Amino acid sequence: MMVDVQKMEQLADNLAAQEEVVGRSLFADARRRFFKNKAAVVSLILLCGVFLFSTLGHMIAVWSNEEIDWGILGQIAELGAPNLENGHYFGADELGRDLFARVIQGTQISLMVGIVGALIAVVVGTLYGAIAGYSGGKVDNVMMRIVDILQSIPYMFVLILLLVVFGRSIFMLFVGIGLISWLDMSRIARGQTLTLKNKEFVEAAIATGVKPITIILRHIVPNLLGVVVVYSTLLVPQMILTESFISFLGLGVQEPNTSWGALIAEGAGTMQYGTLWQLAFPMFFFIITLFSFFFIGDGLRDALDPKDR
Amino acid sequence: MLSYILRRVAIAIPTLLLLIIISFLLMHAAPGGPFTSERPLPPAVLANIEAKYGLNNPIYVQIVNYIGGIITEFDFGPSFKYKDRSVNDIIAHGFPVTLTYGFLSFAVAVIVGGALGIAAALKQNSWLDYFAVGVSIGAQVLPNFVMAPILVLVFTLWLGWLPGGGWNDGQWNHLILPVIALSTSYMASVARLTRSSMLEVLHTNFIRTAMAKGLPYKVIIFKHALKPALLPVMSYLGPAFVSMITGSVIIDMYFSTGGIGQFYVNSALNRDYAVMMGITILIGGLTILFNLIVDILYAWVDPKIRY
Amino acid sequence: MKFSKSSLLASVVGTALLSTSAFAAGVHPETGEKLADDQTFTYRILDEHSSFDPQVNEDVSGSEISRNLFEGLYSQDNLGNLVPGVALSHTVSDDNLTYTFKLRDNAKWSDGKPVTAGDFVYAWRRLASPELASPYQWYAELMSVENADAIVKGDMKPEELGIKAIDDHTLEVKLTKPLPYFTAMTTHSSTFPSPKWAIEAHGAEWTKPENIVSNGAYKLVKHVPQETAIMERNTNYWDNESTIIDKVETLVINDENIALTRYLAGETDRTEVPAGQFPRLKKEYPDQAVVFPRLCSYYYTFNLSDSGPEEFKDVRVRKALAYALDRRVITDAVLQGGQFPAYTFTPAVTAGFEVPKVDFAGWSQQERDAKAKELLEAAGFTKDNPLEFDLVYNTSEGHKKIAIAMTQMWKQKLGVKVNMNNMEWKTFLNERGNQNFELARGAWCGDYNEASTFLDLMDSESGYNDGKFVNAEVDELLSGAKSTANPQPNYTRIEEIMSAEMPVIPIYHYTNVYMMNAQLKNWPIKNAEQNWYAKNLYKVAK
After folding, report:
1. How far apart are the first and last CA of chain A?
2. Which of A65, A68, A157 has the highest number of chain C CBs within 10 A, making it the mutation to test binding with C?
3. pLDDT given at position C3
4. B9, B236, B292, B300, best to mutate vs chain A, most A CBs in 10 Å
5. How far is CA A162 from CA A176, A252, A254, in A?
6. Is the pLDDT of residue C41 over 90?
7. Chain-wide mean pLDDT for chain C?
């Protein structure tokens, strides 16, 4: 028994050591390349800034995100403009609530929604697409027809049923987002896999008897990463805006909480009424975040590109 | 290839059937029905209405009747909400509208987005690249529900150049604002996908070899690089084309175009079952069709692809 | 609704004079104002109407169109009084059960056929018939027309409905019980006549512009679903000569902000003002921003059924929540459209209704707040043991704002914790209708201009009583009000009971807040039901 345990430990150590070596070289390499990309680095700093703002911003907020400033309610256009003195740094929304506090809280939700949505898309979509594309034939046909169906069923009823059956919660919001975010991604991944599978390195791997799942994970997926990363950065804004639709049906974020989608929609509705700050501040954070995601995406794509390795 | 297409067409039928059944069940499971209203109808009245539309039958009978109606008479049923019109009427009126502005938007998105993406990739890290990336991101981050009111404000109220909404049988000046609002975010996606996949192709060995061999630049780009670079763009464009030609609820809502995008969402909100089903089948059919077309195009782009 | 023979006579004489004296071109015959050359009235509607068929339609925008395309027995003037439509006058039997209408002999359909009593008989039978299955079948029952109930249930044939044509211009209606406001109910669009020959020739397609035959001042010339409906002058209409507006156009614009932009760009003559924008618009466009009362009540209802929370069974909790709401803030700072703070359920604008004095209406807000604190503490809720409940409303910008303001008031004044939930409309109706809520938003607009249309909601048997409020005295008072000459004492007592029991929290009474082209004249702002007729409008020259 003792021997066995010892052996096991040894084996485990060996494995760990092995992985560490491989991991270090791969990631060190990628990291070096990533940090050489100025736009990506600046974007990363900006994104960290937005993240810090959303987590620490409440420390300098004077108001909470739900408190109504009764003194300015009803005269937002005249009295609700951004103002350092009364603590409404970003001004007030239509109901006299502090936009600074609301943007902070909305940022938390929307960042989370965007990142979770994109992650689900990347993980589920890429694997699903790669498996379908690599398997080909009947498996491919059935798997992709399932995607066709999922893409065509009235999504709204799925959301309403989720609401009625499970009640509302942040978790259910992510379920709702997760359900659709991966569909397009799986198509793109499958399309790319179809050509990759005829490439020499894959054929070589097949010839040497590597298991299909290993081929998919080791050879196909890394080569998909370029387009996957770029597409997932396109998905982030989509997911952030989808959230407001889900919330419209009642499944997502509820008042007094808010999100970028809700804030931007409110701001866009009132923009011609002299309260442009209600659109400007949430838009500003939305835009810099998306810019950051795009450049980080590009940076990652270049850094992870196996062809340059 | 032909046998592959035939196989795909054959599987399309059970796919559609499955889509119909799932959607039907989902729809009926959702709370509230087409005749749920702020003033609940007296039971006798409700019974009459349900009898008229066959909603009093068990659900499987309703599904069988529904599918039967489609197969035998191409009848997709009446609208429960817009009682003067059948689902066929609604789609016959709304689909050409969305098809028109959707197709135009698609053309704009592909031509402008594709050109920007290719130009950006060829001149990587030049001012042209930054310009293209800037434009595409700018277009992407302005959601259409922000863009639409801005467009109306600028072009209708301030400049007075274009009507703020309505379709007017597709007269050109009614088309401009919806097409701008719809095409921009797709255009941005096309530009970014094209740029990145073009860059990827340009870095591959065979293009480097071609360059080294001294082939003319244009030939390399358009004969060798473009085709493989299009692949991921095409995977994106298949579903994107379907969602563009089946309209956008935002566009229909803000510009009162009367397309089926709005009917789709409204029919779900109104629980207008038959309209909902009709448009779902249309979207499902188009999705299946265009994914087949994309698969055929794959084989054209990369002849090594076998299904 | 009072009906005066003399005003009826006056209008008959008036219209007769008008139709004979052709007025000078370009000048209004009565006021002498210079008329605009283009007499097109374009108005925004929120959503596509459900049908052009007067018996089938079920929404407000469809009724507005019906009133322009068709003409019923009676119409309303600018104050909501009855004026002759196709009927010139009527007589009532001594038992108040038989109404005999005398129809005008010069009324014509748009295809030139005369409008006869038979067209009404056909329409009313259609309305009640299970075959057409109109969602407004209940209206035939509500009018108490003989056998309507049995026909709707399918026990009798539509031909047995208590309506018959004595001759082409005499119509007789039999009721099952006396109904003081029966004639007022004939202004409703579901009672309008319908052309049997067109319906039989085209079936469900009869409302298409190329098939439709109508007897109103206008006829339908074009309809583009979800975009526009265009109606033009019906030259066969009996009073065509005194009609000034030539063309009526509806524009469907879903988004109210875009609708306002398009109004300001001159694309429409009338649009709704988004919440909170009225004061600014009034300042900038004093002659265009208009506001007037509307026959609707906005409230929140407690779930008093078994599925409702225990806390709400305590009347002190209900009262505390009702008292602590500063309705002035909601009407003047949130909505800002001249709405009326509500302390009783029935709007003051309701015809013949006198708002009863309930105690908390007269207090200052400080007094109400103090009383609310006291009541809530007496009920056992303190800072350490705060009251907590869920509030539900259907998704909409306006409802959201009010819910937020309310929850903040409760939180700040009483320390009550409220969880807000919004739901999509049908889910909301379903949950509310099944008593699957704690506190839910509600609103009610009068079906007719009489207090019972509101107070009937409190009947324990009412299908609209979502909070399941049960009070035997209220039930008795309500049924008593139906048969008494002066129901006001009953209504006063019911409102007093409601104020003591607080089954619902009345919040405000509605107004219509419009931007209306300053050239457009004669809009019936004093008609509480907002039954407007384009034939009575006109546009003056700039």
Report:
1. 45
2. A68
3. 41
4. B236
5. 8, 11, 16
6. yes
7. 88
- Taking CA atoms, C303 is separated from B66, C344, C433, in Å, by 39, 19, 10
What is the SS3 assignment for A271? helix
Confidence bin at C245 (pLDDT 50/70/90): very high
pLDDT, residue C54, reads: 93
**A254 closest CB neighbour out of C261, C397, C421:** C421
**CB contact at 8 A, B228 and A191:** no
Question: Which of C281, C422, C432 is the best mutation test for A, with the most CBs of A within 10 A?
Answer: C422
**Tokens representing A215?**
């081929």
Distance to chain B for C216, nearest Cα, Å: 19
CB B144 within 8 A of CB B257: no
* Chain C contact set for B33 (CB, 8 A): 426
Residue B100 at interface with chain C, using a CB cutoff of 8 Å: no
A residues 25..84 contacting C (CB < 8 A): 66-68, 70, 73-74, 76-77
Which residues from chain A sit within 8 angstroms of residue B203, using beta carbons? 305, 307-308
Q: Which residue has the higher pLDDT, C206 or A234?
A: C206
Question: Which pLDDT tens digit goes with each residue over C488-499?
Answer: 889 999 999 999
Q: Is the pLDDT of residue B9 over 60?
A: yes
Angle between helices B226-245 and B172-202 (to 10 degrees): 150
Q: Which fold has domain C293-512?
A: Dipeptide-binding Protein; domain 3 (3.10.105)
Per-residue pLDDT of C358-375, as tens digits, reads 888 889 999 999 999 999
Q: Report the neighbours of A using a cutoff of 3 or more CB pairs below 8 angstroms.
A: B, C
**pTM of the entire structure?**
0.85
pLDDT at A301 over 80: no
Residue B74 burial (CB < 10 Å; 0-12/13-18/19+)?
exposed
How near does any CA of chain C get to the CA of A75, in Å?
Answer: 8
pLDDT score for C283: 92
C5, C20, C107, C527, C538 from C239: Cα distances, Å: 21, 10, 9, 22, 15
All chains having 3 or more CB pairs closer than 8 angstroms to chain B: A, C
Which has the higher per-residue pLDDT, C15 or A136? A136
The per-residue DSSP string of C337-395 comes to: S--EE-SSSS-TTSTT------HHHHS-HHHHHHHHHHHHHHTT--SSS--EEEEEEES
For CATH 3.10.105.10, the residue range(s) in chain C are 293-512
How close are the terminal C-alpha atoms of chain C, in Å?
Answer: 38
Strand partners, C418: C389
A to C CB pairs, distance under 8 Å: 70
> Which residues of chain C does CATH 3.90.76.10 include?
5-248+517-539
Contact (Cβ atoms closer than 8 angstroms) between residue C73 and residue C86: yes
Q: Which of B150, B200, B235 faces A187 most closely, judged by CB atoms? A: B235
Query: Is A136 an 8 Å CB contact of chain C?
Result: no
Percentage with pLDDT > 70 across chain A: 90
- CB-CB contact of B240 with B188 (8 Å): no
A157 vs B197, B268, B302: nearest CB: B268
CA distance A4 to A10: 10
Architecture of domain C5-248+517-539: Alpha-Beta Complex (3.90)
**Which among C79, C35, C61, C69 has a CA at the least distance from the CA of C521?**
C35
* Residue C160 pLDDT class (50, 70, 90 cuts): very high
CB B207 within 8 A of CB A307: no
Mean per-residue pLDDT, C140-160: 90
Cβ contact, residue pair C265, B156, below 8 Å:
yes
Categorize the per-residue pLDDT at A10 as very low, low, confident or very high, splitting at 50, 70 and 90: low
Residues of chain B with pLDDT > 90: what percent?
A: 9
